[in-house]
Specification:
82% of the residues lie in helices and 0% in strands. The protein has 160 residues and is an all-alpha fold. The termini are far apart.
């Protein structure tokens, strides 16, 4: 008959299920090794990139704050408050640059992309300087002139 013909049914079932048990053990071992590898990679990612992302988040907050302060400075009629806001604008720009430098230090592989964002902010700051200077009262006559009227096609339709 066969090799298993002389064994009891219990032994035959155990021998038949042995490959299944072996596959389960190998799968569990493989899953355990892969989970450990994934955990270590994720831990490295968190250690390295989270600090950079936190610095970039702070830089984003400083960018938003810069734009808000710029608007406030333009809209502010009080000279002392304008000068205070102007100083806050300079501090905010410095904090932005500090956050960008920290992000570059924490994640050197993203330096080119971080530098591009920093360059855009620096461009905004440099382009805002004439606007900030014009907002100060020493150049108030330029700001006190009425803005030219903009004619829209809808105005002509209503008038005609």
């Amino acid at each position: 008959m066969g090799l298993l013909a002389n064994f009891k049914i219990r032994t035959k079932v155990l021998v038949a299920s042995l490959p299944l048990v072996l596959m389960v053990l190998v799968a569990a071992l493989y899953a355990s090794i892969e989970m450990k590898r994934i955990d270590s990679r994720y831990s490295e990612l968190i250690e390295r990139d989270v600090q950079a992302l936190q610095s970039l988040t702070i830089a984003r907050v400083m960018d938003n704050r810069f734009h808000q302060l710029l608007y406030q400075e333009i809209a502010e009629p009080n000279l002392d408050k304008m000068r205070s806001i102007d100083a806050d604008l300079d501090r905010t720009a410095a904090e932005f640059n500090t956050s960008i430098d920290e992000a570059k230090r924490h994640s050197p592989n993203l330096t080119s992309r971080i530098k591009a964002a920093g360059d855009l902010f620096d461009q905004v700051v440099s382009e805002s300087r004439p606007l900030r200077g014009a907002a100060l009262p020493r150049r108030a006559p330029e700001l006190s002139r009425p803005a030219p009227r903009v004619h829209r096609p809808a105005d002509r339709v209503r008038a005609g």
